[in-house]
Design a protein that fits this description.
The chain is built from 4 helices and 12 strands. It is α+β, with helices and mostly antiparallel strands. A hairpin with a 2-residue loop joins strand 2 and strand 3. It has helices at residues 17-24, 31-38, 112-115, 118-135, and strands spanning 26-29, 68-78, 81-84, 140-150, 170-179, 181-183, 186-190, 196-199, 207-211, 215-219, 222-224, 232-242. The model has no long low-confidence stretch (mean pLDDT 94). The protein is globular, with a radius of gyration of 17 Å. A 7-stranded antiparallel β-sheet has the order 1-9-5-12-4-2-3. The protein has one domain: q2cbj1_9rhob like domain (Jelly Rolls), CATH 2.60.120.620.
């Protein structure tokens, strides 16, 4: 991987979040912005971090790699009513994921202690509120993915499927941690235009929000900064979809 300049994310004022999503299709909240948006200190999210140290390997990677670990759980949110649904497979059509689409992928669920956290529940409700502000108040079908991409094999690929949409209404990507890595640049492009932007999320609890119908996105591969030492990138990816879960 050649050296590249790392650009800071374009931080959005939480008061302008909905308008920014409407005008450009994506927005980034800094950790300080997340605090204002959530109405909670970052300390309310910190208890979630340990969950990334106990992620089973992703057994479905078709590129032959072993660089991804994950958990996956599903919820419905209707107003303030947040409910975890019975554990289910993650499914995407090949139109949205040419590499792993068209098959049921059963991942281990998130730990009960994590989804019981007040910080977690507030985050889920605020993401549903954001989706409703864009697409109208309704019941949301929410999938949450804990990802760790590591460099044990020399390189890790956060988005092995390449630049993509997810087939949902809102996508949220929260950076939880970066350890001894270079790369992992976020790239966002207009789905029906030429405009694009690139930046690297480096601060834990930074949050990228995407109007999935309007933009495509990807993250570039990661490599270790210091060879022989563990390197990884931990993220939380949450999607909100109207009507039903994909595959229903």
């Amino acid at each position: 991987m050649s050296a590249a300049v790392a650009f800071a994310p374009p931080a959005t004022d939480p008061a302008e979040l909905t308008e920014t999503l409407r005008t450009q299709g994506y927005a980034v909240l800094s950790p300080a912005g997340v605090v204002r948006w959530l109405g909670l200190p970052l300390a309310a999210l910190d208890p979630l971090k340990d969950g990334w140290n106990d992620l089973p390997p992703d057994e479905y990677l078709k590129d032959g790699g072993h660089y991804r670990q994950r958990r996956h759980s599903c919820f419905t949110i209707d107003g303030d009513a947040l409910a975890q649904v019975p554990h289910r497979a993650h499914w995407q059509p090949v139109e949205y994921n040419a590499l792993h689409g068209g098959m049921q992928r059963w991942f281990a669920p998130m730990a009960p202690a994590a989804v019981a956290q007040a910080g977690w529940q507030q985050l889920m409700r605020k993401l549903a509120d954001c989706a409703s502000a864009l697409h109208g108040t309704q019941r949301w079908f929410v999938e949450a993915h804990q990802f760790r991409i590591d460099t044990a094999e020399g390189i890790g690929r956060p988005t092995p499927e390449g630049a993509h949409r997810d087939g949902v209404d809102l996508v949220a990507v929260m950076l939880v941690a970066r350890q001894n890595i270079k790369g992992g640049e976020t790239r966002v492009f207009e789905a029906a235009g030429r405009r694009g932007e690139r930046f690297t999320m480096t601060e834990p609890w930074s949050l990228l929000l995407l109007d999935d119908a309007r933009v495509i996105h990807e993250s570039t591969p990661i490599q270790p900064v210091v060879e022989g030492r563990p390197g990884y990138r931990d993220t939380l990816v949450v999607t909100c979809r109207s009507g039903a879960f994909q595959g229903d």
